[in-house]
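hey can u check if this looks right to u? its 194 residues, i copy pasted from the old doc so theres a chance i mangled smth
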Amino acid sequence: MNTVKEIVINEIIINKSRFITVLTNINSINEINDKINEYKKIYKDATHYCTAYIINGHEKCDDDGEPSGTAGMPMLNVLKNQNLTNVLCIVIRYFGGIKLGAGGLVRAYSKSVSEAIKKTNIAHLVSGFEIEIEFNYDNIKQFDYLLSNLSISKTFENSVIYKFKITAENYKKIENILKQKAKIIKKEKMLLTI
């Protein structure tokens, strides 16, 4: 699976209508309405704000007043064909006065999303974990060596607490040592970008 690394905004004009596509990474369904509303404020006089998203196997699309099936579903299909997940796509349309017809709308919305995807950096997603471990000070060198290629948040109090993200594959390699030498406080499954 793949996702977009950063926000991409791309504009195309088809028969005097402006199609502005926003592609952004999302990590939670709770983010979606806020992001849509943010772009509605930026492009407040647009005619339509069509959306499609895929996150953790959940997908949804909205035609926002365009004829049924001519905007949201074509957008969603482009995202699925690119094997994207954890992504929100908003296509903002300013009507240019020329009707495109159902087939023309499907092609326009599909093209708008495809063009935006061409301008983004794609990141590959893999299964992994966010881990939090606690251990004694005498094991610091061992854990620093074991986790040397990871970004670690470290807390030093009565004991040592490390927080880090690791791929499922790499976690299997160190799981036994972690269980023997540390207390696993938190182990949350997630998708990691590589």
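The chain is about 30% helix and 40% strand.
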